[in-house]
Automatic annotation (TrEMBL):
<feature type="transmembrane region" description="Helical">
    <location>
        <begin position="730"/>
        <end position="753"/>
    </location>
</feature>
<dbReference type="GO" id="GO:0005886">
    <property type="term" value="C:plasma membrane"/>
</dbReference>
<feature type="transmembrane region" description="Helical">
    <location>
        <begin position="27"/>
        <end position="44"/>
    </location>
</feature>
<feature type="transmembrane region" description="Helical">
    <location>
        <begin position="704"/>
        <end position="724"/>
    </location>
</feature>
<feature type="transmembrane region" description="Helical">
    <location>
        <begin position="833"/>
        <end position="855"/>
    </location>
</feature>
<feature type="region of interest" description="Disordered">
    <location>
        <begin position="1000"/>
        <end position="1043"/>
    </location>
</feature>
<keyword id="KW-0812">Transmembrane</keyword>
<feature type="region of interest" description="Disordered">
    <location>
        <begin position="927"/>
        <end position="949"/>
    </location>
</feature>
<feature type="transmembrane region" description="Helical">
    <location>
        <begin position="270"/>
        <end position="294"/>
    </location>
</feature>
<feature type="transmembrane region" description="Helical">
    <location>
        <begin position="797"/>
        <end position="821"/>
    </location>
</feature>
<keyword id="KW-0325">Glycoprotein</keyword>
<comment type="similarity">
    <text>Belongs to the patched family.</text>
</comment>
<dbReference type="Pfam" id="PF02460">
    <property type="entry name" value="Patched"/>
</dbReference>
<keyword id="KW-0472">Membrane</keyword>
<dbReference type="GO" id="GO:0030659">
    <property type="term" value="C:cytoplasmic vesicle membrane"/>
</dbReference>
<feature type="transmembrane region" description="Helical">
    <location>
        <begin position="492"/>
        <end position="518"/>
    </location>
</feature>
<dbReference type="InterPro" id="IPR000731">
    <property type="entry name" value="SSD"/>
</dbReference>
Length: 1057
């Protein structure tokens, strides 16, 4: 433990020296960060915005990408002359429409509907697009089979649609030959939600889809295809949403660039809320940094704290762009986070500033401020940085990029607050030293000197202290909210029934979290990438409703050189095919399986006698296969790969049809089962579909999330233990982290958030955020020297209750803009940050104080026993004599030792069993501040053991003395006896003195001989001369001077000349 305190001591000393330098030369620390920020902002000219959803949301080394590499190494797609839709490996360029009826009749098999479908097809194919100084239409850039563009041959049903509508011709599922055009119609490809009889006769078709594929063989075609897609989407929007030219059909549209567009829209949707969020946070920080004292208020510092966070974020982003890191839309969530974190650090530093003595010069106050705030802001920044560091190693590029930008912003924010914002505090300190108004910077009078001024002046202008009376309690008011947390909120929690209620609510919370964890769903659905009001949402709804019966045409590749004439190899391939068909995810109907080997062997078997051929050797097999089955017009030629000699097959491909797949969990199970079959096969088999690249996240997200949470929790506990070396505290911190993380995971599922790459980012962040509140409240409780647990609760909440409350509010306010953006990605950020901050605050304010009071130090000591001990000690050491103050006593004198034998212990030293420390070592706090101006009670200096004992000693003495002497003192509340040593009637005395002097002034100023004498500067006395004016029938008042001689506050503030 002693060794670990080296970190604490080193931080204190380093920050102390930094504070001295900043306090002496604030201008340099103000200007340099501004210049660096401007330099960093020049990096925005090198921004590279990446909106590729496949790259961002699929794992870098996922199995799907490996499988695609295998397929493309043998069967590269040829869009120019050999294109087949079932054999694509990448998205390419395409447009797709799903058409339903809107006239009340759901059946699409009608002449009127088909006429509108033909019109829609003509409009799409004849649409003129201008790109790169060139006009073109669909057939100029279409994907082709031989010389023909890919066509939606289902539209040729127009020739028989009149007979179909009149029930003269029946359409049979899954396919039939058109009696007019002789086209083979594969109905599952084009029809969705088909109703049919047991015999396969189609009764009704509620939906039809049409697809248009563009050429993507080279960059030029790809760019032209992208331009055509944009025009395609605009055309559908115009003819349906604007012109509404169709009476019978409703069209939903989608293209390969739709998700790219949606990611870009997501980025743009949150930008307008930057300004409003900054304004809200500025108002919040200004208000929370203000006090009724208009000199000590720091409203401009609250605003500058936001500005510091904004500058740090801008600089960090610019340097990341200089480093060549791609920029993605979800990075725009980082500024909202940084503003919340930055304002927390602002509160901590302001709290430490308010804790410093106004009697000291500004550089010394700056040194003490940074020394006290060292651990507070460092532990927050370090935990956040480590959280983002964990995310950098994620296999998901979206997580990695976000964590790089956010981690850099957190580092810059830490440095900017220690330099730029610290310099702003120093300048404000110089203004405070001159007693200038905190808003308008003109000199004002303290409250004690402005009692006769207008009430508007007292309300809006008075502040600071009287340099001749620095300790006037009228000018040093205690914060009301902190008193509330100590005297009311803590007292409320200390009731036994309230503790039981809190534990019961916590049990319900855990039950809800456990239930939510069992209900969590995995995977980032494509619809989640789109905005909530996007046209893509309707398309996804139609696809889910009508086209999930036959969703995926899956390729199976067998690579390696096999002798396909060998019956053993043929049998193994057939067994593999049947194994796929026998799973619940694949259609068992052989009509939906296309295997050239199965078809070829059946063809040879049926025509053996007629053809008079044999395929018993590899040479015969290859020769007959090429001659009979792999003609240039046959698509089977796309599924066989020969070596360079053309004499051996090195790869083959067949197709299976997935059926009735719905939901991400079902998709994950399907991919897992198919890959398992390939691994167990004796052949070198691979399965692939272009969507498998996205499905890989389903396999990784759960395991990665659990691993990141375990690693993160371990790192957070280690960091907490290093900065707060207390084993028991670390255990409670670990408990809190696990509890909060369980709550976040469980309740995010109940709130509609899936476990995906976006929520993984937030889980990583939440690990760091969960430490802030809980570690500090635990340490405050552990560090308290109070005997009873109830007293420890009061001290802990007095120190940290208000900072925790305002820190949580500031973070949530900073994230509200993300909720207003109206899209899933940013709403996940808000929901999860809200959950972790809310649960962290509830743990810090309710649960941990209760659990620590029951199971922590002091839980076996009652408050009554503590008070009895106090009274016993005081009664032994303090005889309570009536005595007159020594005439040599003065405030702020030199040294008590001038009249005291150092070898003879004073009563207070006998009481405390230790030498009393000087003023600078007193008045320390118990814990680490988190986020508010008054978290000074939770500053780093309070960790010193001696200071804690002195502070606790003062409270024990004050409470015991009040119990022992208040009864007599209250009987003789004589305001003429000046209690300069810190007892309870300081305020009464000053009020009474003001009243006496007002009366004397009104009387004396009427007499000229008195007026001049009255205006002479008076000698500062203790007690004041007003105390010696005799009054008739005045009761004898007992002086408490002796008792205050040994009062700790007196020892800190009083000296003999």
């Amino acid at each position: 433990m002693v060794g670990l305190r080296i970190v604490d001591d080193y931080l204190n000393k380093s920050f102390y020296k930094l504070g001295l330098v900043v306090g002496k030369h604030p201008g340099y620390f103000l200007i340099v960060p501004v210049l660096i920020t401007i330099l960093g902002m020049t990096g925005y000219q090198r921004i590279h915005n990446n909106i590729d959803p496949e790259y961002l949301f699929s794992p870098v080394n996922g199995e799907g990408k490996y499988e695609r590499a295998v397929v493309e190494s043998f069967f590269k797609v040829n869009y120019s002359s050999r294109f087949d839709v079932a054999r694509i490996t990448r998205a390419g360029r395409w447009g797709r429409v799903i058409v339903t009826t809107k006239d009340g009749d759901k059946n699409m098999l009608r002449v009127a509907v088909w006429n509108e479908l033909k019109l829609l097809d003509e409009l799409i194919q004849n649409m003129t697009v201008f790109y790169d100084d060139e006009y073109f239409i669909y057939r100029d850039i279409c994907a082709k089979w031989l010389n023909d563009c890919f066509q939606n041959d289902i539209l040729n049903l127009e020739y028989i649609m009149d007979d179909v509508e009149n029930k003269l011709i029946n359409l049979t599922f899954p396919g039939m030959i058109n009696p007019v055009t002789w086209d083979i119609h594969a109905f599952p490809v084009f029809f969705g939600g088909t109703e049919r009889t047991e015999d396969g006769i189609i009764i009704s078709v509620p939906s039809v889809q049409l697809v248009y594929f563009g050429n993507a063989d080279n960059k030029k075609y790809d760019e032209k295809g992208a331009a055509w897609e944009d025009a395609f989407l605009d055309l559908i929007e115009e003819i349906q949403d604007k012109k509404n030219i169709f009476k019978h059909i409703r069209i939903t549209r989608f293209a390969s660039r739709t998700l790219d567009h949606e990611l870009e829209k997501n980025t743009k949707s949150v930008i307008p809320y930057f300004t409003s969020t900054f304004v809200v946070m500025a108002i919040f920080s200004i208000v929370t940094c203000m006090m009724t004292d208009w000199v000590r208020s720091k409203p401009w510092l609250g605003l500058l704290g936001n500005l510091s966070a904004a500058m740090a974020t801008l600089a960090a982003f610019g340097f990341c762009m200089y480093a060549g890191v791609d920029f993605i839309g979800i990075n725009l969530a980082a500024p909202f986070l940084m503003i919340g974190i930055g304002i927390d650090d602002t509160f901590v530093m302001l709290a430490a500033w308010r804790r410093t003595s106004i009697k000291q010069p500004v550089p010394e106050r700056m040194a003490q401020m940074l020394s006290e705030a060292a651990v507070s802001i460092t532990i927050t920044s370090v935990t956040d940085i480590f959280s983002f560091w964990i995310g950098i190693f994620s296999p998901f590029p979206s997580v990695t990029i976000f964590c790089i930008y956010s981690g850099a912003a957190t580092c810059f924010l830490f440095v900017w607050h220690l330099t730029f914002f610290a310099a702003c505090v120093a300048i404000s300190g110089y203004c405070e030293h001159k007693n200038l108004h905190s808003v308008f910077c003109f000199k004002v009078q303290p409250l004690s000197k402005s009692r006769n001024r207008c009430f508007l002046y007292r309300w809006f202008c008075s502040g600071g202290v009287d340099p001749d009376d620095l300790d006037n309690p009228l000018d040093n008011q205690e914060h009301g909210f902190m008193v509330f947390f100590r005297d009311y909120f803590a007292a409320f929690l200390n009731y036994g029934c309230v503790k039981i209620l809190v534990i019961l609510i916590f049990g319900v919370y855990l039950l809800g979290a456990g239930y939510g964890i069992t209900q969590i769903e995995e995977g980032l659905e494509r619809r989640k990438v789109a905005k909530n009001d996007s046209y893509a949402i309707e398309f996804f709804d139609r696809e889910d409703d009508y086209f999930k019966e036959f969703p995926y045409r899956i390729q199976v590749i067998i690579s390696g050189q096999y002798d396909y004439s060998n019956p053993v190899v043929q049998r193994r391939i057939e067994n593999l095919t049947q194994t796929f068909e026998n799973t619940s995810y694949i259609s068992s109907d052989r009509l939906y399986t296309k295997s050239w080997l199965r078809e070829f062997l059946q063809y040879i078997k049926r025509n053996q006698d007629y053809l008079n051929i044999t395929i018993n050797t590899n040479e015969e097999f290859i020769r007959e296969l090429k001659e009979l089955y792999l003609g240039p017009t046959s698509t089977n030629s796309l599924d066989v790969k020969f070596d360079e000699t053309g004499e051996n097959i090195i790869a083959m491909r067949f197709f299976i049809q997935a059926v009735n797949i719905s939901g991400t969990e079902h998709e994950k199970e399907m991919v897992r089962a198919l890959r398992k079959i390939c691994r167990e096969s004796q052949l070198n088999a691979t399965v692939f579909h272009p969507y498998f690249v996205f499905f890989d996240q389903f396999e990784l997200v759960r395991s990665l999330s659990i691993k990141n949470m375990i690693i993160g929790a371990g790192i957070m506990m280690l960091v907490s233990f290093i900065f707060i070396p207390n084993m028991l505290c670390s255990i409670w911190v670990a408990f809190s982290i696990l509890s909060i993380e369980a709550g976040v995971v469980g309740y995010m599922a109940l709130w509609g958030v899936h476990l995906d790459s976006i929520s993984m980012i937030n889980l990583i962040m939440c690990i760091g955020f969960s430490v802030d509140f809980t570690a500090h409240i635990c340490y405050a409780f552990m560090s308290s020297k109070a005997k009873s647990s109830d007293s420890r609760v009061k001290e802990s909440l007095y120190a940290l209750g208000l900072p925790i409350f305002q820190g949580s509010v500031s973070t949530i306010l900073g994230m509200i803009g993300l909720l207003l953006a109206n899209n899933y990605i940013f709403s996940v950020f808000f929901k999860m940050v809200f959950l972790v901050v809310f649960f962290g605050a509830m743990h810090g304010l309710f649960l941990l104080p209760v659990l620590l009071s029951l199971f922590g130090p002091g839980s076996c000591t009652s408050a009554g026993d503590d008070e009895d001990i106090k009274l016993s000690n005081i009664e032994k050491s303090l005889p309570h004599p009536y005595c007159i103050p020594h005439p040599q006593f003065t405030l702020n004198g030199s040294n008590l030792g001038a009249v005291k034998d150092p070898n003879i212990p004073s009563p207070i030293e006998r009481y405390s069993k230790k030498q009393f420390k000087n003023f600078g070592d007193m008045d320390k706090d118990l814990g680490l501040g988190t986020s508010e101006e008054n978290s000074s009670e939770s500053s780093i200096q309070s960790q010193k053991k001696a200071a804690l004992e002195d502070s606790a000693l003062e409270r024990r003495y004050r409470e015991a003395w009040r119990r022992n002497s208040d009864l007599n003192l209250n009987q003789y509340r004589n305001p003429q006896v000046l209690d300069i040593f810190g007892n309870d009637f300081d305020v009464d005395y000053y009020r009474h003195r003001a009243k006496i002097e007002d009366n004397r002034r009104s009387y004396s100023m009427q007499r000229p001989e008195v007026r001049s004498r009255y205006n002479e500067p008076k000698r500062k006395q203790s007690p004041p001369e007003g105390g010696y004016y005799p009054r008739p029938n005045r009761n004898l008042g007992r002086s408490s001077s002796y008792h205050n001689i040994v009062h700790p506050r007196f020892i800190k503030e009083s000296r003999f000349p």
